[in-house]
Amino acid sequence: MSKVVLLLVLLAPLLLKGWYVDNFIYHYTGTRLLGFTQVLFNDALIYGGILILLYLSLMPTIMRWLAALLRLTALLLFAVYIIDYAIIVNFNTHLALGDAIKYADYSYKYIQQIYGLSDFGVLALSVLILAVPLYFSWVRFKSINPYIKKWPIFLILGLPLAAAFADNEKYAHAWIYKNVIDYNLTILSEAAPYSAAYVDAFAFQEDINCQTQAIQTKNIIILMVESLSAYQSRYFSGIQDWTPNLDAIASQNQAFKNFYANGFITEDGEVALLTGLQPLYPPSSYTDDGGTSFYSFYNIKDSLPNILKKQGYKAEFLTTADLEFGNTGVWAKSVGFDYVEGHDQPEYDKWERFHFEAAPDEALYLRALDRIEKNKKNKFLLFIKTVSSHHPYINPETKEKSESAAITYTDKQIGRFYRELQNNGFFKNGLLVIVGDHHSMTPLKKAEVELYGQYKASAKVPLIIADGDKPASVENNQYQQIDVFNSLQGLVVGKQCSSDWNGILFGAAKTSPKYIIHRRGDNRDMVSVFGEDEDFLVKLDGDNTRVISKLPAEQTFRQLLVDKINALRIARANWALTQSAEKSD
């Protein structure tokens, strides 16, 4: 009986992953068993490794210390497999070595916040978790008699042969059923460096068109809403109806229905919106700070806060999140914010805390209204970063745990904040930008893929610009987050500039970019480029960076896409050489 239980425990993650991936792919293709069988084929190597280690540890002649080492190795591999499965289900991506390094220092805090554990609770849980593998590794089991039970080894050694049936190239979402080792090896090309010879010979020229206009000195609020996605809104997609307040605001102002995030995490959204730079990171290793948040984007002199401060603005950054996460507080100060506030603001002490030690969005908006009042005699930029709609989803008022409940709460608070701004007369000389930071970290919905296509669906977020001087309008041309920076910069300096890669959102110079770049969260070694009529994938691989999707007909166009990506990454690499990746207080 105990052997059956152990076998079920061992196979449970494999079967659960197979079931989950099969459902994931079924939503796209309507085909059953494709995902399940591919999980079995891809993960046969990992399970083969786990089983051979366990089998060898039970041989009658093996030394006890070696048996313990083999079992611990098998359990470590099993634990990595389970963690990878959990990340796929919860964040729609794999366990990546870079992420493990990047977020390791905050993982302890995050576990405490999610499960409400004290330091003692985490210690007790850790002891319990470690006790099981240590006991399993050291205890003596009945040894395998090689003369009686030879057949298991033949089955185990046969498992890797199943990998020959893996098909990881033909299907667009093959990343999800790759095993964690294969996935990490595949995305290593993202870190492939450019050779010195390539960099020396490289040149890229981008045509930029500029025109002057009257300077406007409006107060500016950028409201970056966590995980706000187009599919959540009836107005922006017709798929879900979770955002009636947002939809009402959109219908009364300037709504951009074909708008894209330039990256897949909050950090990417902050970089794009506040620096106007594409959140493409340079080739890097984990020893040269490539595993740190905001790597190569510290101390940007031409950031939006710095540009506006030259025009007499005060720049403030407000969030209820822990500013230590991702080193956000240090980064925000490095790009020019005069005032940076996070979860430790005393006003939040009376509020219940959720993930990232954050008070709910309602508390954040009250603080924002207070800061607006304090700055009423100044020109100001107020950047607001919400948290309540972050995974794991929970409605702070009802405690219901679901995405729809969390987004419904988030939408309710957006509506209340907008009405308060109206009542306080903000829009007499104020401009409000409401934008999603990235697509929610959930599997794409079938309706999204059918509506937007498999590449664009993962980047689609709402954008609303509420400006008291401008009538309601709907924009269907494509735009992106860096265009928010570009347009606001032009507004206050009186010079709007655009190119094939940068658009302008409003005014007489309003222009849609021909190409939009999106850093993907599923295949980290690939970048999506959205054209006006076609979409492309570019494989990041140092000197060998290349277009790998359906190839454009003209070689010059293929080269244009590759050269733009390489120019961005080489520029960040050069910047990183002169700037510390992380500046501590």
Main attributes of the structure:
585 residues; alpha/beta; eight-stranded mixed β-sheet; four-stranded antiparallel β-sheet; 12% strand; disordered C terminus
Commentary on this structure:
InterPro entries: Alkaline_phosphatase_core_sf, OpgB/LTA_synthase_biosynth, Sulfatase_N. This is LTA synthase family protein. This protein is globular. Helices cover 43% and strands 12% of the residues. The chain is α/β, with parallel strands linked by helices. The strands form four sheets. The protein has an eight-stranded mixed β-sheet with strand order 6-5-7-2-8-9-3-10, with helices on both faces. The longest helix has 28 residues. α13 packs parallel to α14. It starts with a helix and ends in a 7-residue tail after the last helix. The protein has 17 helices and 16 strands. The C terminus is likely disordered.
